[in-house]
Amino acid sequence: MALTKIFVTGATGFIGGSVLSRLLDHPDAKSFEIVALVRSNDKAQKLNTLGVKTVLGDYTSYELLTKAASEADIVIAMANSDDLPAANAILAGLKQRFEATGKAPLLIHTSGTAIIMDNALGLHGDHTIYSDLQSDELQALPETALHRNVDIALVNADKDGYVKAYLVTPGTVFGTATGPLVDLGIQNKYSMQIPIFVKASLARKRGGYIGAGKNVWSAASLSDTANLYTILFDAVRKDPDSIGHGKDGYYFVENLEYSAYEVAEAIGQALVELGVADTAEPSALSEEEPVQIFGNIWPFLATNSRARGDRSRGLGWKPVDGKDALFQNIKDNVVELSKLV
Fold first, then answer.
1. Cα–Cα distance between 100 and 205 in angstroms, integer?
2. Residue 316 burial by Cβ neighbours in a 10 Å radius (0-12, 13-18, 19+)
3. Low-confidence ranges of the chain (pLDDT < 50)
């Protein structure tokens, strides 16, 4: 059986490490040759013990990215979703692969539903809900929207015919990573959006939200998110033209919605149970606190981003984790992160 050559970026990240773990446990794993981009010799050596080949570098190692992509049948990009030079370096390599083989290689890229977020400042949850089937509406989003700079380049490359691009597009991804990479101490166990509020609340000893806490995001668990990558991976290997790609290649990842207030309240309840706070009722951050706590990214944390993964479900993806799982993960995060304070 011919080997399927796979190049993976973001392999030790929160999402990337979980996807890589599933590839290693895949029924066809013996037919995969997996190469991962890593920054350190320590990570490289530990991944080697799992049968993963490695290249040392980062997203500024453009020649390395191009070379690794040029040798791959499939690239799974799970690092910086906004780094256009790095994306162009990968596309250059994929174009070389196409010119050498006459067959368009496959690119599974990680974008994010920040492409559809607004600037609510926590004051409302009234926002358009976008389906991943709304290709024309998604292509009409402003070029200045987060992630769009890279997404546009990928869609254009797909249109040019030298690559087939599939854009996995999560909202909030919650959970705590487990698996062989975590056991080796090389994978990021936590996401960003929930823990950043947990850490802030531990510091102020009370749950908190920005504005009125009314902004709403779509979310899915890490397990459900990694499952979608696997289902998409299997589908594109079987018949890459049978499913949407390019401008029709967005795959939203969501199975619930939550408001910022709900998260703050859940954090508050966990703080009370830990004896850190006297009340579970969260409070609005003062005018100064958002910048003091979160820096310049604070408006991003107060946006709406509401999505529906209709195309994703059309692949046979069946997410199972809902709000109960989110609230349990918030509680777990509070307990774990309180040990680091």
1. 59
2. exposed
3. none
Tens digits of per-residue pLDDT, 239-253? 999 999 999 999 999
Tell me which H or E stretch contains 306. strand 306-308
Look at residue 52 and give its three-state secondary structure: coil
Residue ranges of E strands in 58-148: 74-77, 106-110, 129-131
- How distant is the alpha carbon of residue 188 from its chain centre? 13
pLDDT (0 to 100) of residue 1: 58
What's the half-sphere exposure (Cβ side, CA atoms, 13 Å) at 334?
26
Contacts of 185 (CB under 8 A, 6+ apart): 46
Structure tokens at 171: 């909202």
Per the document, the length of the chain is 341
**Cα 19 to Cα 10: distance, rounded to the nearest angstrom:** 10
Task: Report the DSSP beta bridge partners of residue 256.
Answer: 219
Amino acid at 295: G
pLDDT in tens, 137-184: 999 999 999 999 999 999 999 999 999 999 999 999 999 999 999 999
* Distance from C-alpha of 97 to C-alpha of 94, rounded to nearest angstrom: 5
Number of CB atoms found within 10 A of residue 142's CB:
7
Q: Which residues contact 315 (CB under 8 A, 6 or more apart)?
A: 228, 231, 232, 235, 243, 251
What 8-state DSSP symbol labels residue 305? B
